[in-house]
Automatic annotation (TrEMBL):
It comes from Parachitinimonas caeni. This is Carboxypeptidase regulatory-like domain-containing protein. Residues 1-25 form the signal peptide. Keywords: Signal.
């Protein structure tokens, strides 16, 4: 090839390279973010906007944050080393947050192929639900009760629950996205209760937990003392009859001093024993003990586990209280 032609090819190549480099030069992008509320269309001030700009050609990641002004706007700048924004060379991620608004939002972008791109973000205000008033047996408001609900969004149950804690008036307000689904309330010293969204009552009374110490104290208080062989044998026979009447289980032990059932294994079943012990001389003490089946262990992520556990525990404790309350009268008869 003649030298002149070689020079022409070289000049043409250099010119093309420079033109390409100029087209791909670093560009300063001036972003404007606009936020508004979905229901009213009003601008949202003091919203926190998180922005990530990924330039796939240079593998550079730029993170930006800004807070919207009274007009619901904020601005920032980014550098695009690969030139103007052209998919798939760039990846853009947005997030907008403000207390009282859902983390879900919609957005649309405009002018992405210019030096002044715009993003319009629409945010959804959270819905609110004022809980019933939670009181104790004396109708006193319970402070510090935790109300927890699962939520449903577009027929999908969300993993994260919404909660609130009752104040001096015994109630609180839940802020949520979508729909409230299933809920319960729990408070220290009280059994957990379900809370339903279907015509919820204005007032819900929580029951105090009946502790093992309470039950042990009752066992001791209802024990019967007797004197003489004939009187004690009669009282012990009546105690055995009473045990068989209130227990769900068959007898496994029966002697002159103790009668005991098999341990309960099924839910809502109860067992127990009556025993006779000498006090002094010909005086004897006849007592009763009762017990329920062990609660079924449930996975921690089972949202109904707390209510189920407390419902079973309460049912058991209340049955045992009833057994102790009626024991002395039954044996004296």
């Amino acid at each position: 090839m003649p030298a002149r032609n070689k020079s022409l090819v070289l000049i043409t190549f250099i010119t093309l390279l420079l033109s390409t480099s100029a087209a791909e030069a670093t560009v300063n992008l001036n972003w404007t973010i606009f936020t508004k509320e979905s229901l009213s269309g009003q601008a949202i001030s003091d919203a926190s906007v998180y922005f990530r700009f990924i330039d796939k050609r240079t593998q550079k990641i730029t993170d930006k944050t800004c807070a919207t002004d009274k007009n619901g706007q904020c601005t920032f700048e980014t550098l695009a080393a690969g030139g103007m924004i052209r998919s798939p060379n760039f990846d853009i991620q947005y997030k907008a947050e403000k207390s009282g608004y859902s983390k879900r939002f919609t957005y649309k972008s405009e002018d992405l192929k210019t030096e002044n791109p715009k993003v319009y973000i629409t945010m959804n205000p959270l819905r609110k639900f004022e809980t019933p008033v939670f009181v104790d047996a004396s109708s006193n408001s319970i402070v510090g009760a935790k109300v927890s609900f699962s939520t449903r969004y577009n027929d999908r149950i969300e993993s994260e629950r919404v909660t609130c804690t009752t104040t001096q008036d015994g109630k609180c307000t839940l802020a949520f996205d979508g729909e409230l689904f299933t809920g319960f309330v729990s408070a220290p010293g009280y059994y957990a209760e379900s809370v339903t969204m279907a015509s919820p009552p204005e007032i819900i009374s929580l029951k105090k937990i009946i502790t093992d110490l309470d039950l042990s104290r009752m066992e001791s208080e209802v024990a019967v003392e007797c004197t003489g062989k004939e009187s004690c044998e009669r009282a012990f026979s009546l105690a055995q009859i009473y045990l068989l009447k209130v227990s769900s289980q068959k007898l496994q032990i029966a002697t002159d001093t103790i009668v005991e059932t098999y341990n309960p294994s099924l839910p809502n079943t109860i067992g127990g024993r009556v025993y006779k012990e000498p006090i002094k001389g010909d005086k004897w003490r006849i007592a009763i003990q009762s017990y329920c089946s062990e609660p079924i262990e449930k996975k921690k992520e089972d949202v109904e586990a707390i209510v189920d556990r407390d419902r079973d525990a309460r049912a058991c404790a209340e049955r045992r209280v009833k057994i102790y309350q009626d024991f002395k009268r039954s044996v004296h008869n």
